[in-house]
Amino acid sequence: GDMHLVVVPRKEKDRQSMSTYSGSDRILGTPFLLTIPGDRVSFSGMQDALREAMARYAKPAAVFGGDGSEDRFRVVWMRGTYDEEELGDDIAFGMVQDRDVVAVDFARDTLDECFSREEERALEDHPSWASENLNSDGRASAEGLTLEQCLESFTEREILSEKDTWYCPRCKRHQRASKEIALWSPPTELIVHLKRFSQQEGGSSFSLFSSDKIETLVTFPIEGLDLSPYVRSPALEGQALVYDLHGVVNHFGGSGFGHYTAYCLSPGDGNWHLFDDSSVSSASASDVVTPAAYVLFYRRRGAPVGHFADIDMEAGCSTMETD
C-alpha cells in the first residue's frame, strides 16, 4: 500500500558546530505528511513525491530546474533525536518504515536560491476545511469561530453532571449544582490561551489517551476587544474595558511535534514584526489572524507600555536576519 512519512524541512547542520544535535534553529518551515503511492515506494519515488510536495516553496530554478544539476537538498532518516542517516539509494531507503520521520536538509550556502520563506508561510484553504469548522450547536460559521464566541462559551453557566455533585451544607446531601466562570478584576495584560489540543480515550499501548491538534480558525480583533460583558465587579460597571492586541504566539505541526513563531507589535514604531527563530521580518496586521494562532497577548487601552521610543526596529531587523 501507500507509504506515509512525516517530513521536516531544515537547514543543513553547521559544519563548524561540534554538537551532534543543532537544535530548532535549523527548522525551515512547517512539517508535513508525505504520501508515496504504493507502486512508487522506492528512493526515486520518495524524491519525486518530495519535489511535488515542496514545489510551491522550493524555488524551481535552483532545485528542480532541468539543467541536469543535482537537487540541492539531502534526505535524512531521523531514527531518533541523536541518530540520523542520510538516504541516498534504495538500500538505505529499504530500512525506512511507514510513518517514520525524514528531514529535507537544504544547503546553507544556497538557501536563499532554493527556499522561499514567503511561499512556505502562505496558507491555502482546502475545500473540506469549512465543513470541519462547524460547531455542534451551529454557532460557528464557515469562517470558524470568533474570540467573542469562545469567551461566551467559557463564561456561560454550566450544570454539573451527576458524577460531579456538590455537597450542600444546608440540606446535608449531594446536589447537582451550577458553575459559572467570570472576571472580577480585569488585568492590565490579558493573555488568552486557545485550546489547540484535545485528548481522547484510546491512545497507544503506552498511553490511555491520544491527543489531536485543533486547527479551527479563531478570528480575534486586533483592536477593540471589549471585556465588559464578562466582568462582574459592580465597581467597574459602565467603565471602558477595551483591549488591543500586541502579540501572538503561533504553533505549526501536531500534538507531538511542531514549530513556534511569534507576531509582535513594536511599541517603538507601531509596526508588526514576525519572529521566526533567529529571523525577524516585517509583517502587517492582516497577517496575524491565522489558524496557527495559539496564545494571544492583549493590553488594556491606556495602560503604560514602557520605554521603547528610542528602539530602531529597522536596524534590529537587519542585524537579526541571519541563518
UniProtKB/TrEMBL annotation:
The keyword Acetylation does not apply. Its EC number is 3.4.19.12. Residues 1-16 have a biased composition (Basic and acidic residues). Keywords: Hydrolase, Protease, Thiol protease, Ubl conjugation pathway. It comes from the Eukaryota. One of its GO terms (molecular function) is cysteine-type deubiquitinase activity. It is an enzyme of class 3 (hydrolase). InterPro entries: Papain-like_cys_pep_sf, Peptidase_C19_UCH, Ub_carboxyl-term_hydrolase, USP, USP_CS. One of its GO terms (biological process) is protein deubiquitination. This is ubiquitinyl hydrolase 1.
